[in-house]
Structure formats: C-alpha cells, structure tokens
Design goal:
The protein has about 425 residues and is α/β, with parallel strands linked by helices. The protein is built from twelve helices and 21 strands. The structure holds 5'-O-[hydroxy(phenylacetyl)phosphoryl]adenosine (DLL). 5'-O-[hydroxy(phenylacetyl)phosphoryl]adenosine binds next to α6, β7, β8 and β12.
C-alpha cells in the first residue's frame, strides 16, 4: 500500500501533538502581528500568543466565524501583503458577499500535497487517468483535485462540470480510471449511462473521489453498485484550504484528517464548549501551515465526530465521520432536529425509491410541515392506487419511527426532480418567503 508522506500520516500521537503545538504557536504569533481582526479578538479576550502553552489552551481563544470574514471582506483576513498572494478563490454563500480566500506560492504547494495524500489514500497512483468533473472557476474543488492528481503524476482530464453525455463519452474513449465530482453528480452520470445504454462495467473506472456535499453510507453503496467502483469521500472547505482537509483511505471507515496541517475540535454548537472525545458536535478547525489565510478556531458548522483509534491502514491520523450535515442545514420540525442525510439514509434502504428526493418545508397554521418528495421506479409510479398508497404509508411509517416526526410523502414521476452537476440542493424552505 502506498502512503504519501508516511512521516506525518503514521506519527505517534504525542509527536503529532508536539508538532501541532509548535506550529500553532508560530501561527498565533504571525496572525497576532499581521491580522487586525485576530489582534483585536485576542486583546478583547485578554490573551497574547505566549499564553497558549499547550493544546488544551487552544480553547481559551475566541472562535472565528463566517461573519468575521464578511466584516473583513475582501482581503482583511489575509496575513500577507497581496503581492505575495498568487491565487484567489471564493465560496458563494447563500446570502450576501462571497468569502474570499488567498494562497501564496507555498500554500498552493501545501494544498497540492494534502490533496495528493488523500487521493493516494483512496488508491490513486501515477498510472491513473483522473477525470475532474467539478466546475473550474472560483470553486476550490476542481483546482484542488487537479493539483493533487498532478502531484501524484496521474494523467488529468480537466473536464469541468456538466455536459453529462460528453463526460461519459470521454470516460469511454480516454479510459478514465478515477472520477472526481460530487456524489450526487456521480449518480446523475449513472442514470444517464443507463439511458444511453452504456454499461458501466465496460468502462475502466475503478475509483471515485467524491466530496463537497453531505452523503450517506447508503448513497455510497448505491454509487458503488451502479458504477462498479470504490466510492471514497473527501472533505474540505474554502475557508480552511478547499478539498484536502480529510479523506477516506481504502478502509473507508472515517476520513483521515491531516492533523499535521489542521487542529480539529468538536464543540457544542449552542454553547461553544469543547466536547469530550468521540462526541458528536460542530467541527472547529485551526490551520497550522497556511501563510496567506490562516484560520484560528474556524466554526465550520459541519456536524460530525472524531475517532482517535488507529485505523487498519496504519495511519494514526484521527478519523472524521461522514458529516450529518451542517448545523445551519438542520431542519427543526415541530421541535425535532432532523438532518436531510437521516432521511436520505432511510429512503435508500427502501426498495423502489430512486436516489433522488427533495424536502419541502412549509408552515401551515403556525405548524411546520415537511413534504418528502421521492422519485420511485416506474413500476411503483404506474402501479395501482392501492399499492401506491401502501408504499407511501410504508415510507411515512419508517421515517416516523426513526425520526419521531410525522412527514407527508409524495411520489413523483421518474426523472422529474432536478439533477445536479455540482452541490445538490435538496431542501426547499418555503417558511422564509
Ligand atoms: O466544497 C471544498 C471541497 C471541494 C471539498 C471538493 C471536497 C471536494 P466549499 O464550497 O467552501 O468547499 O464548501 C464547504 O461543503 O463546510 C461542508 O458543509 C460541505 N462539504 C465539503 N465536503 C464534504 C463532504 C468545498 N465530504 C462545505 N461531506 C463544507 C459533507 C462536505 N459535506
């Protein structure tokens, strides 16, 4: 098995923690000197970088949030002068101005290397032909995976997103072995192949590197069985670096988080308190090697947990569980917290449900109501009313028994829900209108 940079990936825990502390202290000194926002925050908390003498002291530092980035738009959080920045990316928020992030020459090297590490862990080698079906542009996904694959020495096809039939033709003709896109786009491709009469078994595909949106284990199985590949997950966010924060190894039992470059913490999203090891909560990340855009205790809003046990692959890096979703995507339905991924997990386990669904929230007489729209196979859709009705009742019962909340299920015609080429948008919240 190939490990990219085994030194960092297999370090004993005390050594990782020592390295993290040294890098943290250097980062804090730098941001205190060069970023006004951090200096102000630390001063308000009555802390100077020298006060942070152990990793436990990290929790004394204030959090950084999307709001800080918004207030310092566009370059206020940069820790180097703009002339040292060789790349700018941004992430489009749902509201207001996008978040702007910058990279120095060294940052691009660090980033390429981190992505090469998770791609290697997923099984990609210099013999692979990697088709990048993320959109190139301000989004970090395409460039990140592109650099990582080039660093490994693989052959990169920079397809960008969309044009699904052409993607499939290129996959056939260029003998693509590794596919890079969102998990929802992978399923869209699988469906299109079926419509085009292309047998996925006839392709050379062997591995998928999917990320950028939450997806369930059931969806992983669905992709693997329809495309005949190993479907791996990788996680990241623009504010921290883009892709390259964490990724699956071939054991697929949690994504290894690159602790030589980031310190993860899990907090209670309500109180901000750091939770004990193993707890589920919001992931907070601190960067240790970034030059242009260091982040101290950035609140990702992503809900997950961390597993510190050693993995069968030999890596000692902590493993991050698939995220349940974002704390701001969490739906509160009549007081019950529901993540779209929980509903996805239930739907995928029911025979006859297609992997396409939409959650529509409304408020009726001050009550939240959730309609779950699901595509079903043709035989269920065109089945007699009685059978359809009992299918709907079955799905409603399953959702109720798992989530403890009543929902209305509506079956929709095959291929009628929107397909996604980038991040899937599955929740329609009409309560805000
Ligand atoms: O999506 C970076 C990325 C690109 C990661 C390609 C992996 C592959 P943003 O557009 O800033 O950056 O969105 C970041 O997407 O906070 C999560 O909510 C979500 N996300 C990213 N990867 C995963 C994943 C990129 N594997 C936001 N599972 C993050 C679940 C993910 N959610």
């Amino acid at each position: 098995m190939k490990i990219w940079e085994p030194l960092y990936e297999c370090m004993p825990r005390e050594e990782i923690e020592q390295l993290q502390l040294e890098r943290l202290q250097a980062t804090l000194n730098r941001v205190y000197r060069s970023v006004t926002c951090y200096r102000k925050k630390f001063d308000e908390a009555g802390i100077v970088p020298e006060d942070i003498r152990s990793l436990d002291d990290l929790s004394r530092l204030p959090f950084t949030t999307k709001e800080d980035l918004r207030l310092n738009y566009p370059y206020g959080m940069f820790a180097v002068p703009l002339r040292e920045v060789i790349r700018i990316h941004s992430s489009s928020g749902t509201t207001g101005k996008p978040t702007v992030v910058g990279y120095t020459k060294n940052d691009i090297k660090t980033w390429s290397n981190l992505v090469a590490r998770f791609m290697t862990a997923a099984g990609v080698t210099h013999d692979d032909v990697v088709q990048i079906a993320f959109g190139y542009g301000m989004f970090t996904g395409a460039f990140g995976l592109h650099y990582g694959a080039e660093t490994i020495g693989a052959s990169v096809i920079p397809m960008s997103a969309g044009n699904t039939e052409k993607q499939i033709m290129i996959m056939q003709d260029y003998r693509t072995t590794a596919l890079v896109c969102t998990p929802s786009y992978a399923l869209t491709m699988a469906s299109r192949m079926e419509q085009m009469g292309v047998d996925p078994k006839s392709l050379s595909l062997k591995v998928g590197l999917f990320g950028s949106e939450p997806w369930s284990e059931a969806m992983r199985k669905e992709i693997e069985s329809r495309l005949y590949i190993s479907a791996t997950d990788n996680y990241g966010l623009s504010e921290i670096i883009g892709p390259g924060v964490a990724g699956d190894c071939e054991c697929k039992s949690g994504m290894h988080l690159f602790e030589d470059a980031f310190i993860p913490e899990i907090i209670d999203p309500e109180t901000g308190e750091v939770l004990p090891r193993g707890s589920v909560g919001e992931l907070v990340l601190t960067t240790l090697t970034k030059e242009a855009f260091p982040m101290i205790r950035y609140r990702t809003r992503d809900i997950t947990s961390l597993d510190y046990d050693k993995c069968d692959c030999g890596r000692t890096l902590v493993r991050m569980r698939k995220t349940m979703g974002r704390s701001d995507d969490m739906l509160i339905i009549r007081g019950v917290n529901v993540f779209p991924s929980q509903i996805e997990e239930i739907l995928f386990a029911i025979e006859g449900c297609e992997p396409h669904y939409q959650l529509v929230l409304d408020r009726e007489e001050d009550m939240d109501v959730l309609e779950v729209r699901i595509e079903v196979t043709e035989n269920i859709f065109f089945d007699e009313m009685k059978k359809q009705k009992s299918f709907v009742e079955l799905v409603e019962r399953k959702i109720h028994s798992v989530l403890g909340v009543g929902v209305t299920v509506r079956l929709v015609e095959p291929s009628s829900l929107p397909r996604h080429e980038g991040k899937a948008k599955r929740v329609i919240d009409n309560r805000k209108i």
